[in-house]
Amino acid sequence: MAQPLSFEALASSQYVLSSAENFVLYVLLEAVARGKGGGRLPLNLGVVIDRSGSMYDEQRLEFVVEAVKFLAGNLSPEDKVSIVAFADKAKVIITPEEAQNRDAVRRAIDDIDLLEIGGGTQMALGMRAAIDEVKKNLDPSRLNRVLVLTDGQTYEETACIDLVQQNRDQISFSTMGVGVEFNERLLMRLAQDSNGKYHFIGNPSEIPNIFEDELHGLRSVTVRNGRIDVTLAQGVQVRESFRASPEIYAMGSPVVGEDRKVSYDIGDLEAGVPGSVLLTLVLPPRKPGSVRILQSTLHYEVPGTGEAEAACDLAIEYTLDRTLTSKRNGRVMSLVDQVSIAKLQAKAEEELKAGNVDRATRLLGNAIQGTQRLGNTKATQALAGLLDQVKKTQTLQTKAAKTTLLQAQAVVRKTQMLDPDALKDFGKPE
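-> structure tokens emitted (430 positions)
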């Protein structure tokens, strides 16, 4: 029987200089789920909709209504979906049973503006109500997810983070920020901590398409609950670890125990979409020869089949020949470059918030050079637009500047899969 996925470990170079102290090597651990072997997994969704006063701006609520109607129109009989509206209070407006009745959904969502739930933004109340609904039909054979859409700053952000931490082993969370007033760092964290998705919605008219994207992604999941366990060889250290695809973000400082092991959750995998972790390793000097620097095991679940695992080791060659160590793996180095660009953009944002405009512009300039080298036109345009706003306003406080920043964040964080021809230059000796 064909394997449901591929799993491999790739090094930025197969050769390490024997005499080098603290030789830096990049390692990509990547899993790719194959196409569907059976039917799709049934859904168990809780949709959380901000109905605060600001949602009436720019017809935001109208587009939400359209998106929810699309969602209801694309459910199967086995799907379970509940809809929660929140402001100062939270209210379940559509139960999973009612969601199967399209007329009932239309009536409930059309009357969302008549709800007496206040005009503030208590997102944690909405999340808690949706979690409770999802838990009523919680099942490992279902895709259990909460979708949160908001356009403003919420009270009690810590409560939102705690809810995700408490439920992340059973439920993933996707977040959608509309406009420029929401806290993007909070929404990113909620999604990243639970292996969900974060969406920036610059134009409210994009809301139905975002819901469609979420639904398509859920329908494409073929492998569940991926986790990569890594055992490092003696003397090998992890300096940094990043999620490298499908989106780029830091995975925090790795905790390596005495057993030399570290784990990385990669969540559910959509067919054909790589789920990968990029490690920055520091290697000790060794005598010339082949050395296994790590062992890795991917643990995952196949719906209808059960738990499974795939393993791969990574060995490199220690050498005294410097010309060999200059050869690079194009696939790995392209992701290293993309992660570096994301780090530059994030650092530029920090410098700008600290009032260091000159440093911010230099960092953005370096990031643009990187995107140009990669041939990533969208990222280049987004960063160039941000740089232009920074030069004009010297701040991120204007609506135009914040919109440009959020657009740049979204584009830079999305991993670009380069074609084989584009990778050739990365493999050339430096």
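The first strand starts at residue 5 and ends at 11.
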